[in-house]
Design brief:
One of its GO terms (biological process) is peptidyl-glutamate ADP-deribosylation. The chain has 5 helices and 2 strands; from the N terminus they run E-E-H-H-H-H-H. The chain is mostly helical. It has a two-stranded antiparallel ribbon with strand order 1-2.
């Protein structure tokens, strides 16, 4: 990828690796939605601990009430390990 003589391959490669690590194990549409939901709750609803995140996910809609607390906690941990959550 060149634009005016600048190669963006290293930048794109690093971004791709970061996203690949983030979604590893969360490749299904439902799992990607869970990651996005947990991120949203942390960023916009100030859900700062696992209990707040679980409560937020389960209060979102009836479909998300079916997500297990274990799966939600894992999603939160993955996002935290990838530095995608606010403290």
């Amino acid at each position: 990828m060149d634009w005016i003589g600048v190669s963006y391959a290293p930048i794109v490669g690093r971004a791709f690796e970061k996203v690949s690590r983030l979604v590893d194990g969360f490749e299904s549409p439902q799992d990607l939605e869970l990651l996005a939901t947990v991120h949203w709750l942390n960023k916009y609803e100030q859900a700062r601990n696992t209990d707040q995140v679980i409560e937020g996910v389960h209060s979102w809609n009836t479909r998300k009430q079916q997500l297990t607390t274990r799966k939600i906690a894992i999603a939160e941990k993955v996002l935290g390990n990838q530095h995608c959550l606010s403290a």
